[in-house]
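dude i think i finally got it to work??
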Amino acid sequence: MSQPAKLGPNSKGRALGWIYRPRSCGLCVPLAQGLFSSRSSSPWPGAPGAAGRGILSSAQPGEMRIPGVWVWQGLLIGDTTLMGSAVPVTGESFCDCEGQSEAAFCSSLHMAHRGKDCSCGEEDEYFDWVWDDLNKSSATLLSCDNRKVNFHMEYSCGTAAIRGTKELGDGQHFWEIKMTSPVYGTDMMVGIGTSDVDLDKYQHTFCSLLGRDEDSWGLSYTGLLHHKGDKTSFSSRFGQGSIIGVHLDTWHGTLTFFKNRKCIGVAATRLQNKKFYPMVCSTAAKSSMKVIRSCASMTSLQYLCCYRLRQLRPDSGDTLEGLPLPPGLKQALHNKLGWVLNMNCSLHKPAVSSPRVVDLTSPNSPETRPCQRKRCRRS
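look at this
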């Protein structure tokens, strides 16, 4: 195994270093601590194999192809560090639970969860689909009734991916993925793809797997949206504790993303008559994601009415609260379409073509124009 390079006396900057955890040792051992310089041949001075030769492929710290885990110990400034994606993204959690916003972390990564894992936002008990144990990369391990996927249990040598058990056909599909580990590295992504996506294609390459071709779309934790090899700035970053929601509307052909249950935009259109699977991927060692919601509904008049109600009452905690509806009907709607009634869709307003829904806020709607009733005449 190549040893960390020794930094020369001409190096400048603040003392930084790598932390290495051998498989046989449960302790974090700081190695190669010293000064860094922008003139170094590697973006990560002292990295294994970086002595005058650059880094191994495009790996980030914690993703090296060695029998152990290497993590860069960077200079902390508030909630961020100087190393960019070499350290976890913090401050983007759905909740304020302890351990969800820590900037410093140990190379074993499981230290990020102290005590009981956070269960905020995990109210659902029924799931339309879970992760598919038969369609996944070898560097993955499932738990929590196949709802939680763990990537690269010891160390990472590439990109691992997995898809859901159900092909998403006609109708409305909504699911939420919770980032249950530190989020860092080359990429950790949430998205969709067809059955043509090869989940093992990049098992020895660090890359953004989802969105490298025309068969998939992927939202990176960096906020970039990937498709056909192109990437565009789509949102702010997300990190440990973030909940990423995905709404696939096959009726209108749209793909919409949410972060912490707030809409962040429509990522794709014209997706009618296509079949997709929910997918996630990661290059980061000891990373994990969990399905906390997976729902499906037909595009019925009932769905469109609930969707429209949510648009008209975006700031209401309970969309049906205060409406003169029978209690039994309210409960039935919550049981069947609760995800629609709780969805923050203020940025996502698809044009409803059929069935037709009247816009109650329009100047020509029955609710706003003057009453023009006429008495019926008997002939």
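The longest helix spans residues 327-341.
im so relieved honestly
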